[in-house]
Design a protein that fits this description.
elongated, mainly alpha
Length: 203
């Protein structure tokens, strides 16, 4: 039997479902559970196209509670896509419990890093720049902010999903241990302080 391999089309579909729908049916009880389930649907559909029972079993895996920071959370979707592919190819050490254990173990640390990087640094920094432009009468400021936000989210998020898919859990450890995240946070924080200082002088 030929080895099953996720297509680029399925990975793209999974990412865009996560990108646009990670808060689908959001509630205090489920958080991002159904958004995650929705993102895994095209991946499981492709892997288990010839076996509806196995597809139902795989989808059942993703009904458990999940919540993380959406932008960096794409890497967890990528990791589980790789695990699901391994399970479809008969890997004995990969089952629903393994996948959910990994998801539960990663969602907290990824949320902590993601909130620090995205919610506390990148978004406030962009808002400081573009609100300043808007106050000066630039009508394109909100449009530019939206375009930049979506470009960063789309590009960075898809790269993380591919990284997680291709390298598995090691990708997250490599990312954390490399110091890249820390350097980005430090650089963005420094730039943010400079921007805030300029705004204080101007206003």
């Amino acid at each position: 039997m030929a080895e099953k391999k996720l297509s680029k089309k399925a990975l793209n579909s999974g990412f865009h479902r996560w990108y646009y729908g990670n808060l689908t049916c959001f509630s205090q009880e489920h958080m991002q559970t159904f958004g995650y389930l929705c993102s895994m649907l095209p991946l499981c559909k492709e892997l288990y196209a010839d076996d509806p029972d196995k597809m139902a079993e795989s989808m059942d895996t993703y009904r458990t509670f999940f919540n993380t920071e959406p932008q960096l959370g794409a890497i967890i979707v990528g990791v589980t896509a790789g695990l699901e592919e391994a399970r479809a190819n008969g890997a004995e050490d990969v089952d629903g419990e393994t996948i959910n254990g990994l998801r539960a173990g990663l969602m907290g640390p990824i949320a902590g890093v993601g909130d620090t990087l995205w919610q506390a640094v990148v978004i406030p920094l962009m808002l400081a720049i573009f609100i300043g432009m808007a106050k000066d009468g630039n009508v394109f400021a909100p449009i530019l902010y939206s375009v930049l936000f979506m470009a960063l989210y789309n590009g960075f998020g898809y790269w993380l999903l591919k990284l997680g898919y291709e390298k598995g859990g090691d990708a997250i450890l490599d990312l954390m241990e490399s110091g890249i995240i820390k350097k980005v946070i430090t650089a963005a924080s420094t730039l943010g302080c400079a921007v805030m200082g300029a705004l204080v002088c101007n206003y």
